[in-house]
Amino acid sequence: MFRRVEGLFCVYKPSGVHWKLVRDNIETKLLKGLNAAPSQPCPQEVRFLAQPGGDAEAPKGLTLSVASVPALSKHPLVTGPEFQYLQVGVGHRLDAFSSGVLVLAVGNGNKILNDLYRTRITRVHLVFHCLGSATDDFSHMGHVVERSTYGHITQDKLDRVLAMLQGANQKSLLMYSNVDMRSQEAYEMAVQGLLGPDGKSAPILTGLRCIRFEPPNFTIEVQCLNETQKYLRKVVHEIGLELRSTAVCKGVRRTRDGPFTLQDALTRHHWTASDIMQAIQQYKSSKKNKNYSRSKVKEPGLHPLEENTTDSQHFYLKDVSDIVLNQSSPGQQ
Amino acid sequence: MPCSFFLCRVTMASSCAQLCLKCRSLLCSKTVATTWQHSTQVRHCRTVTPVITKVLNGSSFFSGNHRTSPASQRWKQQMFCYSELSVKHLATEAKEDKFKEELSRADVVAYKSPLLPVNEIQMPLDLDAAAEFSALEEITHEEAVSISVPAAIPPSSTSLRDYVDKSETLSKLVQLGVNLWKLEQRPNVGTMLLKLDFNMDVAPRLLFLKHIGVEESHIGYIITHNPFILTEDLESLQARVNYLKSKKFSSETVASMVSRAPYLLNFSVKRLDNRLGFYQQQLNLSASNTRNIIARLPRLLCGSLEPVKENLKVCEIELGFKENEIQHIALTVPKVLTANKRKLTQLFDFIHNTMKVPHHLITKFPQVLNTKYLRVRERHLFLEFLGKAQYDPDLPNYISLDRLVSLPDEIFCTELALATLEDFYLFQKTL
What we know:
By secondary structure, chain A is of the alpha+beta class. In chain A, 35% of the residues lie in helices and 24% in strands. Chain B has helices at residues 2-26, 30-48, 58-89, 93-112, 128-131, 141-146, 168-176, 180-185, 189-195, 198-212, 216-225, 234-246, 251-260, 269-283, 287-296, 306-317, 323-332, 341-354, 359-364, 373-386, 401-406, 409-417, 421-428. Chain B: Pfam families: mTERF.
């Protein structure tokens, strides 16, 4: 039964909760589920009890009574529960303030987790902004530092700023990959979509898109590599500055982490052993279907926006065209 | 007479074994254990030899006797060794007396048979003598049977697992349902449990608990949480129960209070009195109301009073409840008195400021202060999203607070929110 629990799954972390609490909670629930399974009955021990006053009539005639007594030293109340510790690992961490998809791995899944995070996984976040004020820690709960008007901001101005940011980031993407830009190798890699930073690097936003714009609030969808939530909040602040106003971040929500999307995430009510096992099975079967290969870096390269995940051919073309367009005209007007 | 001789020897052997076993279970001291192991080695040698004797044959009796008499001497010698060491290491007089009694009996038995050859038997009381016995000694079946080889019990161990099969106290406790694994994590509790004697210590207290009305299924729970009830003085336990009854708690109430707060009877009468007085005074409640609260949450009497005082202050100053409101809340939901201050303030902040619920409504439904913050938050936001977040009883489409927090998810969705459960889960993912 323990085999079925090993693997990867994702949960939806609510905001305001530290990720460690989530991890501990899941570990406790899994242990409870595993220990609740009916365990083996207490093994019996055979003991010989001598009958009082027995005389040996014949050489082999020992009068003994055999009693099969349960060996209490193996009783669960004495030995403790069968499973006492589970290794549950956490994927890319979410700080207490943000919410969203959090990948967890149990047992052997931890090794897979390591491999997954060494390759380039993009994450998609939805960042909620509020225009008009700036705070010291870039979130709406911090100490307000500055206030400004935002009446002059329109949707297309916002789009322009976002496109400019995206272009700058794409450039840095090329810079961080240790390949000479003029070589054939670089071209081939770009065609396949493999161009990107290797290992640790500064956070790079590969895609920025405005989803909703209702002043003073607006929502941006961000695809990024190697980012932290604090960096995203800083980005919000910078966007505000670019728009000649100020903005604070009202919330960060991760909608996707590599192959794990919001649809697969388990909400708080589903954090039971059976649900988790189901999610792991689902992940394993989908892995087989997609022929997911961790060794080849091709798959988690430059993911497009959420709509086009399944059609691989389509998105490679799209990425190349993006690169080409951005390189030719830096900062669209 | 020959049969009686054997009988005596068997009984002597078994009683000796029993005594040693008892001593072993009572005192797990290293010295005693080493002598025991030493003696078991000796007996090991003896059991190896298979013996075929016929008791009713006269000639063989003598030959058997001849061979077994050294055995009896050896028994006596072992007893000597044991008693010698026991004299040195045991402090209790009673045990010494018991040994002397056994010895005198053994002496009597040994001297009964006139054909006792005194050949190679040495009588000096030193341990080296034991090593000289031959391993090829032949013994009868009875001796082989009566000499049970006990498994080597470690003199000290980190777990009660090793002792549970041998100790009567521990096995009876396991059969009652006491979780020994949990108890051995606590320092010193394991050794304390091993030292208890079932008939003298544990049984009277179990009978006492049963007498005051505690159900047998709860006894395991009580001992798991409070093993020290087995070391409390019976008179003081009785005095405390009498005190509670004098305060007009009925016997069933007392029994249920003890079941739910296992540490209750460990506290002195003065302390219980102090606490009851405190609650009655602070909350300005009548005696019957105080009894009601304590009966429902008996651990109020067990914990310290400082957190309760702080909570009351918080309710009064920070949350802004009036005294009669606090009284009503404490009477309906006594758990608020022991709640975590920070969580209470966070929850109240959300309910009052975000959900815009006024004080008097919260007082009317104090259960909202008892829920988890996340639960209230996600339900309120869901209702707000659907446009149904209406908590004022005067306006239409009113949603009562207690139903908001206490209903399970499916009923909440179908009745209050008029939406499906899947929608609720999907909405949670957007928070």
